[in-house]
Amino acid sequence: MNPEPTIPAPTAQRPAVLAVPTTGFLEPVFGGLAQLAARVCQTPFASIVLTGCGETWCSSIAALPAAAVPRHDPFFDYTTHSAELFEVQDTTLDARFCDTECVVGPLAVRSYAGSALRTARGDVLGTLAIYGSAAGQLSPEQRASLMLLAQQGVAQAEHRAQLTELALLSGLQPKTKSLSIDAPLAGALIESVPVAIYHTDTKGNLTYVNPEYRRIFGLAPTQSVNDWAQGVHPDDRAQMEDVWADFCRHPRPVRFEYRTEPREGAVRFFSEQVVAADGVAGFVGTISDFTDLVTSRGKLRKAETLFQNTFDQAPIGVAYANRSGKFQRCNQAFCALLGFDAGELDHRSIGDLIYGEDVARTATELERLWSGAIESVDLEKRYIRKDGSVLWVRASTALVREGNSAPECSVEFLRDISIRKELAAALLQQQALLEAVITELPVALLACNVAGEITHSNRAAAELHCIHTHNPSAQGLPAPRLLAAAEVYLADGVTPVSGADHPLARALRGETISNLELVIVPRNSTPRVTLSSARRLLGPDGQTRGAVAVIQDTTERKLADLELERVHKQLMTASRQAGMAEVATNVLHNVGNILNSVNISASLVVERVKQSKAPGVCRVATLLLEKGQQVGEFLGSDERGKRIPEYLATLGEQLMTDQQMALQELTALRENLEHIKETVAMQQSYAKLCGVTETIAVVDLVEDSLRLNAGAFVRHGVTLRREFSEVPPITVDKHKVLQILVNLVRNAKYACDESGKNEKLITLRIDSAAIGVRISVIDNGVGILAANMASLFTHGFTTRQSGHGFGLHSGALAAQELGGSLHAESDGLGCGATFILELPCSPAEPVRA
After folding, report:
1. How far apart, in whole angstroms, are the C-alpha atoms of residue 135 and residue 582?
2. What is the DSSP string of 39-102?
3. The whole model's pTM is what?
4. Average pLDDT of span 708-714
5. Of 21, 669, 794, 825, which sits most exposed with the smallest number of CB within 10 A?
6. Cα 156 from chain centroid?
7. What spatial distance separates the first Cα and last Cα of the chain, rounded to whole Å?
8. Cβ-contact 258, 231 below 8 angstroms
9. Gap between the Cα atoms of 286 and 302, Å rounded
10. DSSP β-bridge partners for residue 49
């Protein structure tokens, strides 16, 4: 190249960047992002705001008119300061927003979600937000999609800014008429322009470079311009030297791109163009920095890749179709849902894959969509998969258009709802089963709302409470209600129950009702005795939702209980009478034994009287009367008379003996009569005290039972053993205890008899027990089979041929009425048995068996 030319110093500074508009609508690409956000999140409208540039509000298919855009977005500041997605599930419950124009105005925003458009350096460019008309929150897939769209908005905004800056820096302004300027002004412009400009002669030798040229290649003021290659990136240096050498050999218009040596850690991209100079010899070259353009292209490719990934990797099926329904583009999720490969759907349409029963409905709704009658279509329909199976989906369809132009195609978003449909069908089946079970339940079920109005009832409840439906005849009145016509009374059947005291009303107040006995009188029917239980129904939030009551008709059971009580009383009466009969029998046995002794004593007295010598006295008296005055002579001289004194002495002795014997027998007779009197008196005393409790020593009760069986013990040769410990007195009905003991002692005597043993032993034992006292009757008799132990106290069970199976059963009942218990123990046949009666020391409430 030629020697370095002289380069004048710069006389002007770099021009300022043009200002960016701060108001107005954004470019259509940003509106498309907002529309896509509204579709993905299924909200009525969305907005995208770029600070200092403008904003766009739109529905899922078109931009909102300016009159519909709110003057102030109350969510903007919160969204720009949030590091993550800012979401409000219910604006009416949030004090920050409940009174704002967006919430109370025509838009009636009920939910919100927005993401800040934040660059990699952390700068916030604006926001992308969606606005819902119902309270709720986004699904995880919708949140992820909204964040991806926000990233796409950041990429688009940065790309547009860099293109604008590059256009300004490169002087790419609209062409205007050439202005005539003088040489000094032209020189100043060339020296200060932010583009490198140089001139070469026809051989390619540099003749002029401006200051920007030196700055680009990092050349010092004293450094030769031919050292420009040192400022080229090492990877591009050799190539550029070859290209420039070729240009110098063959000067011609040419254009090439290269990178400069990294300075301050950054590599710059430059585009150099050489053209023939107009009006002078040689060539003019310009070098423009298009680093920002390269960067913008990279970011644009990244943004396009992000957008493509959002489409391809979206967790829901997305398909574009023309007006005839032919598929234009489908993402992977859509193909996977239907089991097709992407190429297999190129020649298919929506109508080809819709299930037959859903074709007409789908076609009708799509026609309405394309005709502009509706803005979007939201349907649950069925698709036919490649394998022939049916897939339930929730499809949301909208039209895609550029700004306000005619629709280009439709976009459909699909979500698989097959599992939900299966669950719904199973739930419906379970609900039908539950309703059938509740309807056929033998108990009545009633449910009411928080106002106490009956909302649900089954068949048993309808029959019991005479529930009927009240249908208002006039328009504008409330919906039909269920009314109960039956009358409700307390358990006495007389006192009516007010509406406020019904089980459902009490349950609504928080009471827990369990087995409340009430009498319900249905119309034209007999009263029914019922047991009612009621509970309050609470929702997940803890608020009262109503109440439910379960009413069981216990009329038949009540009647059965009354009959059982009547039979029980008869049984107890019979038991008491049988016990009294047993005691009376023992009394008669004892009286019979005593009467035998009385009879013997009387017979002996009669026999001795018959054998008395008293008639001999009469004969002596008659003989003496016959002698008259000669009695003395007769006694002194007659042999017979001489014997009379001896006879009288002997007769006197005999009469004295007879008198003593008669007195002894009469004494025994009197004693036996006293014994009979005492026995009868004891029986009478127990009979009189029946049902009356008194405090008595346990030993006395046991001795009385033994005394009543004393004769039987003597006749059967039974030995008694008494093992009495010190125990406190007890307060009981003596007759009931005596009835039990007499029966146990008598059974022990029979057991000893039937054993055939020579030694027959019955042991009476008294000791303390946990509840009071314990009385044990122990015999060494025949014993009890283990198989018979469970049935021992059952009514009618007996092992003795002459037994009636009533004694032990009545004894067990009597023990329960006394608050005690009666049980038996035995090691088996031949091992004897032990019957144990336990009684409390103080009287207990009667216990029904």
Report:
1. 86
2. HHHT-SEEEEEETTTEEEEEESSSBPPGGGS-S--TTHHHHHT-SS-EEES-GGG-TTTTTSHH
3. 0.39
4. 73
5. 21
6. 51
7. 131
8. no
9. 30
10. 55, 127
